[in-house]
Every structure is written in structure tokens, then in C-alpha cells.
Amino acid sequence: MAMLPPPCADFYPTLDALVTAANRHAKDQGYAIVKLRTKKRGHLVVKANLACARGAARKSSGQGKRNCSTIKCDCPFDAYAVQKKNTPGWELTVKNGKHNHGPSSPEDLVVHRRADMTKEVREEIRRFTEAGRKPSEIYTNLRMAAEAQGRRIAVNQRDINNVKSMIRREAIVSAASSTTASSDQLLQHPPTEESSDGTRDPNNLQLRLLEQKIATQEAQLREKDALLREKDAQLQIARLEAELSRRTTNTDNQYPQFNPYG
Q1: What is the pLDDT along the chain (262 residues), one digit of tens a residue?
Q2: Residue 31's closest CA among 52, 57, 17?
Q3: Is residue 206 within 8 Å of 187, Cβ to Cβ?
Q4: Neighbour order of strands in the sheet with 44-52
Q5: Closest Cα partner for 77 from 30, 17, 24, 40?
Q6: Residues near 73 by Cβ (< 8 Å), separated by ≥ 6?
Q7: Are 100 and 76 in contact (CB under 8 A)?
Q8: How far apart, in whole angstroms, are the C-alpha atoms of residue 81 and residue 73?
Q9: Which of 33, 37, 137, 169 satisfies CB 3.0 to 4.6 Å to 133 for a cystine?
Q10: Non-local CB neighbours of 1 within 8 Å, separated by 6+ positions
């Protein structure tokens, strides 16, 4: 299927509005548009070069080789947006509307996934999460709601898991802050309670509040320590995999496979 370039007949009040409208068209065609370099006149941006999201791959600044997956394929699509003097806004010009790849699913393009992860969608994910729904169920509900409105949502299950992780972190921080604030307030104005001999003794409750605050802080430290250990383990695994790959490559170069018929 031919992927048509975005229309160039309209003017837009801002550069972001132009890019958003262009990507709305590109989403239905199976590609996405990203901003590259911009040109300024004084402090104002007056021109921006645009490209396909599957354009030129960024060159690695490291010395070693990296085996990483990318959707970049040097797509030749080329366009620019400009705000000329005495015009009502930003105008789009497509220099080369051709692509060297087939259409992609919106879920595979980060540009569309970020655009569709709106505040309303995040709140829907939060509501479903609090109701105990699984990520697959949340994804199905979001997709069906979008289709009912005649559109397609580009959010995938990985995005939903990221939002759920953010919600859990917010809940932990909120609970810890609430516990600490309550403990501080009670420590500053401790209520009195009766001791075994019937007299009022504020020290017993104050001691328990101190112990509760210390226990909360220790739990937070243990959680942070667990996260650091997990990150260290992931880094160690990555280093071991890189070393194994390097040794395998050196072995293959040093001892080429014997061909008895060669």
C-alpha cells in the first residue's frame, strides 16, 4: 500500500500543531514524522526539518560494537515546516514523500504511543488498576473504547505496565509520607495514656511512635537496597553477555569452521 504524504494546503498556528496534524495523517498511513534540526531567527524558531521516524540511524559514540535492534532503515522521506513573514502561520512542504519500507503498526512507533498516552488514558489505566484488572484486560478495554469512537489507540501492554509501575511507586511514596507525617505530628503533640498504676504516661506512646517511624524508614531503605541489587545484577548479566559474545567472535575468527569438501 502506498503511504501518502500529509497534505500541505493548510496553515497551523504553531509548529507543534503542524507536527501533530501531520502525524494524525501519518498514523493512518503506517508511518510517523519526527522533528530534526530547527532554524532560529533571533530567539524564535522559524523552520524545522522533518523526517520519517524510520529515517537515518543515529551513529554510536562508543568504541565497541553494540548489537541493538532498531527500526531505522534510512527512509528518504524529507519535509520541512516554515513560518514565513506575512503568512497566517506554519506551512508544511514535502520535498520527498516516498518511503523505502512498508507501513508499520502504530503500536510499533514511539511517536504515536506517546501521543496516545494522554492524561485521560492514564486515568483510565489507574481506574482499571485499582479495580484489579490485568494489563491484557486494560488493553482490550482501551482498544474497544477507542474503536467505539472511530479511532485506533497506539498504546500497547508495555506502556500499560509502565503506568501501573508508576502508580505503585506513587502509592508507596504516598503511604510512607503519610506515615512519617502522622508520626511527626504525634511526636510533637503526643496524647497521654494510662500506665499500669493508673497515671497518665505520654512516654509509652511516644516510644511506640518512634519505633514505628524507625521501622518505616528501615522498610524504605530495604526497598531501595533491593532495587540497587537488581540493577547491579542486570549490569553484571549485560557485561557477561558482552564478554561471551566477544570471546565467541574471537574463537570463530581464530578457528574457522573446517570444510572437508573445500
Answers
A1: 678 888 887 888 999 999 999 999 999 899 999 998 899 888 888 899 999 999 876 665 555 555 455 678 889 999 999 988 777 789 999 999 999 999 888 888 888 988 888 888 888 888 888 888 888 888 888 888 888 888 888 888 888 888 888 888 777 777 766 666 665 565 555 555 554 545 445 556 666 777 777 777 777 777 777 777 777 777 777 777 777 777 776 665 665 555 555 4
A2: 52
A3: yes
A4: 11-12, 90-96, 78-82, 44-52, 33-41
A5: 30
A6: 54, 100, 101
A7: yes
A8: 23
A9: 137
A10: 30, 102, 103
Measured CA to CA in angstroms, residue 177 lies from 180, 183, 184, 223 at distances of 5, 10, 10, 15
Could you identify the residue written with the cell 503519610? 178
Distance CA 157, CA 165 (A): 12
Burial of 167 (0-12, 13-18, 19+ CB in 10 A): middle
- Distance, in Å, from the CA atom of 33 to the CA atom of 51, rounded to the nearest integer, reads 6
Residue tagged 530567539 (cell numbers):
43
The number of residues in the chain equals 262
Residue 96, φ and ψ in degrees, nearest 5: -140, 110
Task: Report residue 89 as a C-alpha cell.
Answer: 502561520
Helix axes 202-254, 157-188, angle to 10 degrees: 150
Backbone φ and ψ of 174, nearest 5°: -65, -40
> Angle formed by the axes of helices 135-148 and 157-188, to 10°?
110
